[in-house]
Amino acid sequence: MDIALTQRLSFKQAGLTVLVAFILGTALSLIQVGIDYASEDASINREIRALMEISHNPAARIAYNIDAELAQELVLGLLRSPAVISAQIIDNNQLTLASVSRPAMQSRYRVLSDFIFGQRRHFETALFVSHSPNEALGLLSLEVDTFAFGSHFLRRSLLTLLTGFARSLLLSLILLVLFYFMLTKPLTGFIRALSERDLRSPSHAKLPYPPNHERDEIGVLVDVTNRQLASIASEIEQRQHAEDRLTRYLAELEDMVSARTEQLEAANSRLLDSNRELEQAKRTALDMAQARSAFLANMSHEIRTPLNGLLGMLSLSLDGPLNNEQRQQLSIAHDSGKVLVELLNDILDLSKFEAGQLELEKIPFDLASLVEDTASLLSQNAASDVELTCLIDPQLPHQLLGDPTRFRQIVSNLLANALKFTRVGRVDITVSAQHEGVKITVRDTGIGIAEDAQTRIFHPFAQAGIGITRQFGGTGLGLALTRRLCEAMHGQLSLETREGVGSTFCVELPLPSQTGTPLQPQLRGRIIGLSPADSGLSAQLANLLPRWGLSYHHLDADSPLSGIDADLLISDCPQRLHELRQLSNLPILLVSAYGDFLSSEQVDTLAPVEQLARPLSRQALLQALRRTLGQGEAHATEQPSEPARNRQARVLLVEDNPVNQLVAKGMLGKLGCEVLLANHGQEALTMLETQAVDLILMDCNMPVMDGYEATRRIRQRSELNELPIIALTANALSDERERCRAAGMDDYLAKPFRKDELAALLDQWLSAVN
Ligand code: ADP
């Protein structure tokens, strides 16, 4: 334990004490010196006065006697006093009787003494004799050098101060020694003992008390330190125990981890094995799915080709001369064939979904017309007491981007169901524009669907109840397909229904629009609608006519008819029209259900200007209004719904199968086309060198040269670059369409096709060319 002397407690203590003692001692010594000065100063005057008093009488007598000799002796005697440096006796005539003086003492301390006491002092006293104190005899004057006193005083003061210092010094030495033994030594001993302790190896041995310090502050300090050391020692012991336990635990943990790692590695390798097996199983499943798809494609080819022939032949036979019974039998056979085709199509579509092969087109199409066409086609299935209405939002863009074929499928599935399950009431299909899409709602007043069946019916081959197939037929595939189609188009299909009240299926699809809102035609005239208030017709007329600039007024079916006046009356109540005819000859536009047109006698009596079939398409209504109101381009004799039927086109049919040739040729002929026939691709190429055609229907699989190769060669000829080529194929899988496009064909028609499908394609491609 090495502490510098000046840093030691005893030194600091002693130093402080000595400083205080020194200051106090110096102050006291200075006070003592001051007092001594005052008394010394007073004693100078006192002693000289005493000297003058002693000398007064002899000096007075000398002055009285004017004895110069004695006067000389007296002043010499006075000069013997060490302080007196000059003495003089002067008589009353101011005559100096005696005068002596000597030089002042010289010393280097004199300056100090002169500073304190002054250099010299002058004393004089008047001389008189005691019996005549009032008579002045002369003067005794003394000059005193203060140094005689000052030197004594300085010596004493010096001594006083020196002894003061010596006392302080001695005191400090004594204190230093005392403090050292009392404080520093026991403390340094204690500190040494403490610092020699190794806290890392705790011991419960106590630090010893310094001798004779058991009960004082140092003893208490030792006690407290011992207590702290004991608690530190026990804490360290506890910590060591805890660390020991922790180390043991870590070791156990390590063992557990390594055991677990081994287990995991084993599980991992098992998992890898099972992954490999799963991978293998997946590959097998995919292979099987592919095989199934291929099988389906082949099967569909195999089934479609004869079906195509069957349906085509039946349809041709139905157009020929037949008696009623034969016609009915053939119609049933034709209808059953159509059901078979639809079933086949549905199964094929489902399998495409499952194989992930369904591809959606994105082309511009007119959704409103598509809905109206589909509704018009399906209206033949509607019961006579069901009113089918298309309510098209006038804001709906003219052209939307999407897959028209799949859209038609959705609409016709929902609409066919609504018509199938509704015996009486209304079926409405509403199309409205939504933000970035469309909403199609099919609402019917049919049998509705029980709550427990509402989710089930969206699964393949599921129907609402067991009696459904027997009563209504069907396979249970339509809704499953529709839902998947909606999801594939990123839309959704929802259902609201109450058993016995009706159902509403709602499809919401994001369809980007290709064009803006269409311009509405503008007509002039006053129109009255006569129909039941809750009829689809009144809703449709109220929706359309005011937007076309017409003033429209609705009359309920049982309102009185007298006094009504308008440019045209539109009605679907022929029974009220007889009454009306008696009252006025207002032009009448009659709307009837499909196949429920007026007999010729009724036409004669009612004389309607127009008779239109339900569902009313916007185009048909507009044309009829233009004709009856005498506005716009249309002529009264025009058949608006059949504008394209008279197709005067030359079509080259390239097909090897004679049955298919016959079917396609028959349909084309009925559609007004002139047909050229080639049995394979090579023959078609030869014919095209000499003959000009407007369109080619090209089978894909043919002997000699197949349809793909033939198309490629046709496209190589620049003058035939624009010629529409439509593929005819029975292979319904998705890559087939791609193959056809890659070869240069424009469109695709799956066999067996219906006449209206062929007609739609002809209309599309022939109008595109013209
Ligand atoms: P399918 O009509 O061929 O039976 P769907 O998948 O189209 O097959 O329909 C499944 C079932 O859903 C139908 O069998 C019928 O029970 C019920 N369903 C569908 N649409 C309607 C509807 N508009 N009204 C009442 N029931 C319906």
Structure description:
With 770 residues, the protein is an alpha/beta fold. The chain folds into 5 domains: 169 residues, Beta-Lactamase (2-Layer Sandwich), CATH 3.30.450; 146 residues, Signal transduction histidine kinase, dimerisation/phosphotransfer (DHp) domain (Helix Hairpins, Orthogonal Bundle); 143 residues, Heat Shock Protein 90 (2-Layer Sandwich), CATH 3.30.565; 104 residues, Rossmann fold, CATH 3.40.50.2300; 118 residues, Response regulator (Rossmann fold, 3-Layer(aba) Sandwich), CATH 3.40.50. Helices cover 52% and strands 16% of the residues. It has 19 helices and 21 strands. A 5-stranded mixed β-sheet has the order 6-8-9-11-10, with helices on both faces. A hairpin with a 4-residue loop joins β1 and β2. α1 packs antiparallel against α4, α3 packs across α4 and α7 packs parallel to α8. The longest helix is centred in the middle third of the chain and has 103 residues. About 2% of the residues have low confidence. Adenosine-5'-diphosphate binds next to α8 and α10. It holds the Pfam family Response_reg. Its main location: membrane. This is histidine kinase. Its EC number is 2.7.13.3. Keywords: ATP-binding, Coiled coil, Kinase, Membrane, Nucleotide-binding, Phosphoprotein, Transferase, Transmembrane, Transmembrane helix, Two-component regulatory system.
